[in-house]
Design brief:
By secondary structure, the chain is of the alpha+beta class. The protein has 38 helices and 47 strands. The strands form 11 sheets. An 8-stranded mixed β-sheet has the order 24-28-22-35-32-33-34-43. A 5-stranded mixed β-sheet has the order 2-1-5-3-4. A hairpin with a 2-residue loop joins strand 1 and strand 2. Helix 33 packs parallel to helix 34. The longest helix is centred in the middle third of the chain and has 26 residues. The protein is globular.
């Protein structure tokens, strides 16, 4: 008699749930959001962003196991019998925040807030999983699987440092002295200098001789002078007692346990009203109840499960025999542990697996055992558990025996994020047979054995080197499974090393990887020869391969230069990739194969020197760094700003007003909203870049259960035409499609799953037309948006070139790729129809009025019947200014026709493919300059890839033309812009709006000028900097210029001369590691260049309890706009900030608003709010005069009883500006400068940003904490644009991608900076005593959203300086071309040594989608 069926259960935040039936294909995230736990966000659906992080707990024997997981991948039924903790289970503003939540909120670690719950849960899971406090390094490593696009990570890392255990090094006097300058609130006291700074942020007190050695990862700690002062003593020489006393005297906090300046307060900014408790006392007002593991689950014994469903059945066997029986019965069934592969296939490849077998509870597959010969690992063991076991072996086994274990451990450290490693299994990583598997080359090299078994068959053993048969094909029969893996120990004189190079070091898929092993035998004193060698690679062929020719060249040979040379020649034969091989980067991947082998040779030679007495050193000391991995110490940061009186509201570092609700997951975004009767929409989009539509057949889709209908161009009730500037787009394509992803129609159904399944059934027949993808395609075809390419002229360029005024003239081209916005919240909208054709829109947009106008036009109704509401955005950066409109319009049509609410949320891959990016640019230049380096003339042509619609491309090009001067005075300028019409999704606004592209073109040729004149690049830049009251090339006079002050500030903070000397010493001492140093200025114009957009409105209500509600036309998207506007209102009305509230943005409150863009929103909406407050103050003035002792509430009530209007509408129009085409397009300029230092691994192109010092002019800051957040976030985003992030399109340079397809459309292939990419020392100073006299209504502040972005290019140019040093060592002198971004591929190939020479010369230009 079979046992009764088991009711599947789990607990969530301590509450018992019975899991729903028939949901085998569902993820934990889908179900959590179904039960209204929306704090867990959907950011990517592939486990790459961390927004969906939750903690899952289960009992393993007598031990409780807590682990962070990606809920977007975790199968729902995999948590049966487990306890899930989400962010809602920790705390909330009413009952009290959890200390982690409180810390993050108060440390300014949340901006848009969409990623915040994921960070909270990652940190919480780490603390729960450890028996002791983690180290700072463990915390930073733990957050590698969480992405943030807003903050730049520094405040998040600082926030969580309080939970770290003390580093023993922190107790040394040297370390105490080094941290001495990190004073509470980051204030620089009263220090000042001639350049207007708050004193020097960092005092470089000399560097030890070890500064030339990379043994500490290339990073040396700096001595920080307290507030720029040494108080009469060198800061590195004070005693512990003196330092503690000094810290007390200046208001800094001292840790009661260590007696040193407390890390809890280091450089943090705090609202003055909370200064007594914000950092010193992290306890919430009401300590929350910690979610505990439920008693029922402690007693519950796991049971076999068989859960049936319409799409898939879920089985959970408890024995190996049970697994084998199921596999015999269902040969096509998929075994699931972490679902990190199967889940991706089901989501993005539309794979259907009717039978899923969860093997997490099978003891035989979860067993690990260390024997005398090696380690046995069950195939279901998670990678995290394997790492723990490998660490344990490293402590218990002789070092020589664990060479393979150490290599595998090192490789797993960079295998995805912690959440993935916590669930992904050893076996799953093997049997997928991926050619870029990080572990499989190591298993092959180490001689690992795989044990396989099927029902009724004996176990068979297969060597790893024989297991991989072809692309994702392995030696595994349909009814067999991988049972276990045997990893043998290594012997004496046997060495194993791992290799991997990716676009980003942490949490990234490999470009190429490898595993290498060599075993020696002694042949004489001090002499050895290779007994056995295994050289294995991934990422260079359809499967992981053994380099048999290289192995043959090594075996039987001594470890010397001749053997190395022979092996390098051999490996070139082993790794032979066809030019258009999938993945591209052919020259780079072949170079990496050689570089890995060279690095292995150096590593082994170093080991032999230590292990074999008399072994003669093979390489000079300058080569030793080739074998050293990067070591990354915890991030440090200093932030300086001007202090204001404690009673002031404006100027205080107040935290984001929504921070508390964001850290606990209560902040609401579009995807979190549920409306009764709501339908779900899925788009039917073009699959061709350019084609005629011959027919559309939605019959099959319309007949699917739950489908409410299909709607296309013929169903649009109003106008089908739309566009941001001109109506050159369609709501639904009617006859011709002009890019992949263009909407053809939309399916609506009762669930999103039904809608998406039905949308895939719509049949579209095409007739293909020629497609243009790149700028060069468009130039060749003469495809431009005619009439939209403008120009700016200054002086007489031709005469200057011909007159002999220029000693040198150079000509060239430069390219820069586009950039994905990667806001964590994808595009989304909900359209709710009402009575009498009323339409309510809930949208994730920066331009609510544009939505109102477009939806009214598409539906054929007047605008007064359409209201657009925006609560907040989970990031925008310009990407939700105009490109959010098409998706909203697509949802509006069925909502209007069916008279039912319709919701449309794009998946991450759809969002990235269809919604546009930062424009790729191509620039051609002709520059004339004097021998001194003084630039005289510039003739430039700029081309941007506008895409299939004009959108905002013309205005973006205009700003590029206006910023072509960067921060430099150029007497004669001619710059012409061209907007290229191509067949990719229309590109659009992105932070900087074309300005950074224009500036980068100039900085690229400025580098060439420096090389030609033989002068340092920073000297050439300084020589050409604008001076006060000089006129720009478009005729605007610079009043109150702070360029020189910011330049001097950045150089002074960085200790530029000392750092340059240290870099030079390091570069002399290291052949294969190089450091570079660069400083970059910026000058960014503030205003819309389209004049009429420079207007704003605000509505201020005063209620009879004395509280104030402000509504304005700007949108809160993490930049702190609402907080700043509330500060302005509170200050103007004389109220505490807590009395002012801003709820949302809505077009029925403030009409005709301009998009929240151009960095001008705080200026405009702050001024409009100030205008409204001035009106209210005027009305209240008589009452203040009559009743001077009355409270504000009493005054308000007196006015109310006298029937005085307590509501005011304020308005602001930026004065004097002219727009593009005249001499004052900008209200003012924001200035800044950044100095960055990097260390480059010249063998692979991997790098670390060691230091960045930024000096930023923000006028008189309304909120220095928010402004610093914008500076740091903008800088990291700019660093990503120029150094990491690369869009790859199916164009002529990337024929392995289908034409018009975006290959990089998710976090797996597109890499934004992670927490482990930011500078190790990250310092920001807000320039002191630099009020903005152009904006008195907003307290003389300046805009800050976009200006810092370009400063990230300082990392690009620092890297280029490092490459120059590498080329010099290779005997290559002079300027070289390097396009942006400076990815590892470009950096490695530019280093141009004997290892790259067979695959690309010194002047190879790496392919770029542009």
């Amino acid at each position: 008699m079979s046992p009764p069926p088991v009711t599947p259960i789990c607990y969530v935040n301590g509450k018992r749930y019975e899991l729903p039936e028939g949901r085998a294909e569902a993820t934990l995230l889908q179900w959590l959001r179904d039960i209204h736990l929306t704090g867990t966000k959907l950011g990517c659906a592939e486990g790459g962003c961390g927004a969906c992080t939750v903690m899952v707990s289960h009992q393993a024997g007598t031990k409780l196991v807590h682990r962070s997981v990606n809920a977007c991948l975790c199968p729902l039924y995999a948590v049966e019998g487990m306890h899930v903790v989400t962010v809602e289970g920790l705390g909330n503003p009413r009952s009290g925040l959890h200390p982690i939540q409180a810390r993050l909120a108060k440390a300014h670690g949340s901006q848009c807030g969409f990623c915040t719950p994921g960070f909270v849960m990652s940190m919480y899971s780490l603390l729960r999983s450890k028996s002791e406090a983690p180290t700072e390094t463990e915390i930073e490593d733990n957050l590698a699987g969480n992405l943030c696009r807003c903050t730049g990570y520094r405040p998040i890392l600082d926030a969580f440092k309080v939970f770290a255990k003390a580093d023993p090094a922190a107790y040394t006097e040297e370390s105490i002295a080094a941290s001495k300058g990190m004073q509470q609130n980051g204030h620089a006291s009263e220090a000042s200098s001639a350049n207007g700074l708050n004193g020097n942020a960092v005092d470089i007190n000399g560097h030890a001789a070890t500064d030339s050695s990379p043994t500490a990862g290339g990073y040396q700690g700096e001595q920080h002078a307290e507030n720029g002062h040494c108080h009469g003593n060198d800061a590195s020489k004070g005693s512990v007692k003196e330092l503690t006393k000094a810290s007390h005297s200046n208001g800094g906090k001292v840790c009661p346990s260590t007696g040193r300046p407390c890390d809890c307060t280091a450089g943090m900014q705090v609202d003055s009203s909370e200064s007594k408790q914000a950092l010193a006392d992290l306890k919430p007002e009401k300590p929350p109840t910690e979610p505990i593991f439920p008693a029922e689950l402690r007693k519950r014994q796991p049971s076999e499960l068989h859960l049936r469903g319409p799409l898939a059945d879920w089985h959970r066997p408890l024995t190996l025999a049970g697994v084998l029986k199921l596999k015999a019965e269902y040969p096509d069934a998929r075994l699931v542990v972490g679902n990190t592969e199967v889940g991706i296939e089901m989501k993005f490849k539309d794979a259907r697996y009717p039978v899923l077998i969860g093997v997490t509870h099978v003891p035989e597959l979860n067993h690990m055992q260390a024997t005398e010969d090696g380690l046995w690992v069950g195939s279901s063991v998670t990678l995290s558990d394997l790492m723990d076991q490998l660490r344990s072996l490293g402590k218990t086994q002789p070092a020589y025996a664990t060479s393979a274990c150490t290599a595998l451990l090192n490789q797993l450290k960079y295998f995805a994020g912690n959440q993935i490693r916590n669930t992904a299994s050893v076996g799953g990583n093997i049997v997928t047979g991926s050619p870029i598997s990080d572990t499989c080359p190591l298993y092959m090299a180490c001689g690992a054995t795989f044990v396989l078994q099927g029902q009724g068959m004996p176990q068979r053993k297969v060597l790893a080197e024989d297991f991989f048969l072809g692309y994702r094909r392995v030696d595994l029969q349909p009814t067999e499974i991988l049972v276990s893996v045997f990893l043998p120990y290594t012997q004496k004189l046997e060495y194993v090393k791992e290799f991997k190079q990716a676009h980003r070091r942490d949490d990234d898929i490999a470009i190429a990887n490898g595993g290498m092993r060599v075993r020696f035998r002694r042949i004489a004193d001090g002499q050895v020869e290779v007994e056995e060698a295994r050289i294995c690679y991934g990422g260079v062929a359809p499967k992981c391969i053994m380099a048999t020719n290289a192995q043959a060249a090594l075996e039987g040979q001594p470890w010397n230069q001749a053997t190395l040379d022979a092996a390098l020649l051999a490996v070139a034969k082993d790794v032979n990739i066809t030019p258009d091989a999938p993945g591209g980067m052919v020259e780079f991947r072949r170079s990496l194969a050689a570089s890995f082998l060279f690095r292995f040779f150096v590593h082994v030679a170093t080991q032999l020197e230590a292990d074999v007495q008399g072994f003669q050193p093979l390489f000079p000391d300058t080569y030793k760094s080739a074998a050293l991995p990067f070591h990354r110490p915890p991030v440090q940061g200093l932030q300086y700003w001007s202090k204001v009186p404690g009673e002031a509201v404006v100027g205080q570092p107040t935290r984001h007003m929504a921070a508390d609700v964001q850290v606990c997951g209560e902040a609401t975004y579009v995807d979190d909203m549920k409306i009764h009767g709501m339908l779900h929409a899925a788009l039917v989009v073009s699959s061709r870049p350019h084609a005629k539509i011959l027919s559309v057949d939605a019959t099959a889709a319309a007949n699917k259960p739950g489908v409410a209908g299909y709607f296309g161009a013929k169903d649009v009730p109003g106008g089908n035409d739309m566009g941001a500037v001109v109506h050159d787009e369609e709501c639904f394509a009617s006859e011709v499609v002009t890019c992949i992803g263009q909407p053809i129609g939309v399916i609506v159904a009762d669930t999103e799953q039904h809608a998406r399944m039905a949308a895939r059934l719509v049949q579209v027949e095409y007739e293909d037309l020629p497609a243009l993808i790149s700028i060069e395609d468009a130039i060749e075809a003469g495809s431009y948006y005619e009439g939209w390419g403008h120009r700016v002229d200054c002086g007489d360029v031709d005469k200057c070139f011909e007159s002999g005024e220029c000693d040198h003239i150079i000509e060239g081209t430069c390219k820069m790729g586009g950039q994905e916005h990667f806001y964590l919240e994808p595009h989304g909208s909900i359209v709710v129809p009402g009575e009498n054709d009323e339409i309510k829109i809930i949208a994730s947009t920066q331009a609510p009025s544009k939505h109102q106008q477009t939806i009214a036009h598409v539906l054929g109704i007047p605008q007064h019947k359409v209201v657009c509401h925006v609560k907040r955005l989970g990031g925008g950066f310009g990407g939700k200014e105009s490109r959010s409109v098409p998706w909203n319009a697509a949802a509006a049509v069925p909502a209007y026709i069916l008279r039912r609410p319709v919701r449309l949320i794009l998946d991450r891959d759809e969002d990235m493919h269809y919604t546009g990016h930062r424009h790729a640019f191509l620039g051609t230049y002709k520059v004339g300059f004097k021998k001194s380096g003084k630039v005289q003339a510039l003739d430039c042509q700029l081309y941007n890839n506008a895409g299939n619609g004009l959108d905002l491309s013309a205005a973006i090009m205009d700003r590029a033309l206006l910023h072509i001067d960067a921060a430099y005075k150029i007497p004669h300028v001619r710059v012409v812009g061209h907007c290229c019409k191509t067949n990719i999704a229309s590109n659009t606004a992105f932070r900087g709006f074309g300005g950074p592209q224009g500036m980068l073109v100039t900085e690229m040729w400025m580098d060439r000028v420096a090389r030609m004149t033989g002068q340092p690049l920073h000297s050439i830049r300084q020589l050409n900097l604008y001076k006060e009251k000089e006129k720009t090339h478009f005729g605007q006079i610079l009043h109150g210029s702070q360029i020189q002050a910011c330049w001097d500030g950045a150089i002074g903070q960085a200790g530029f001369a000392e750092r340059q000397k240290a870099c030079d010493e390091f570069n002399k001492a290291n052949r294969w590691r190089k450091r570079g140093l660069a400083v970059i200025p910026t000058k960014f114009g503030i205003s819309f260049t389209t004049k009429f957009l420079n207007q704003a409105g605000a509505l201020v209500h005063i209620y009879t309890d004395g509280t104030v509600l402000v509504t304005h036309g700007g949108v809160e998207m993490g930049q702190g706009l609402h907080t700043k506007v509330a500060q302005v209102a509170a200050a103007d009305l004389g109220l505490p900030l807590s009395s002012v509230y801003i709820a949302e943005t809505a077009t029925d409150k403030v009409p005709n608003s301009s998009p929240t863009a151009a960095s001008a929103s705080s200026d405009m909406y702050g001024s409009a709010t100030a205008d409204a407050c001035a009106q209210l103050n005027a009305r209240l003035k008589p009452y203040r005069e009559k009743r001077p002792d009355s409270s504000f509430t009493q005054l308000v009530n007196a006015a109310y009883l006298d029937r005085v209007d307590l509501s005011a509408h304020g308005f602001y129009a930026t004065p004097d500006i002219t727009g593009f085409g005249d001499d004052m397009p900008f209200n003012y300029f924001t200035y800044g400068a950044a100095c960055s230092e990097v260390e480059l691994d010249t063998l692979t192109g991997d790098f670390q940003a060691l230091r960045t010092h930024i000096c930023m002019d923000v006028g008189s800051s309304v909120n220095p904490a928010i402004d610093i957040g914008q500076v740091e976030g903008g800088f990291i985003q700019g660093m990503g644009w120029t150094c990491l992030e690369e869009l790859v399109w199916g164009d002529k340079d990337h024929k392995w991608v289908k034409p018009g397809v975006l290959h990089t459309r998710g976090p797996g292939t597109y890499k934004i900076p992670s927490a482990n990419d930011i500078p190790l020392n990250f310092c920001v100073t807000l320039l002191k005593d630099s009020p903005n006299h152009r904006l008195p209504m907003v307290y003389s502040s300046k805009a800050i959203g976009e200006p810092p972005f370009f400063l990230g290019a300082s990392v690009f140019f620092a890297l280029k300086e490092a490459v120059y040093e590498a080329r010099k060592d290779a005997g290559i002198e002079g300027w070289f071309q390097m396009d942006s971004p400076a990815t590892p591929e470009r950096l490695r190939m530019a280093c141009a040594d004997h290892l790259t020479e067979p695959f690309g010369g010194a002047n190879i230009r790496v392919k770029l989608s542009c």
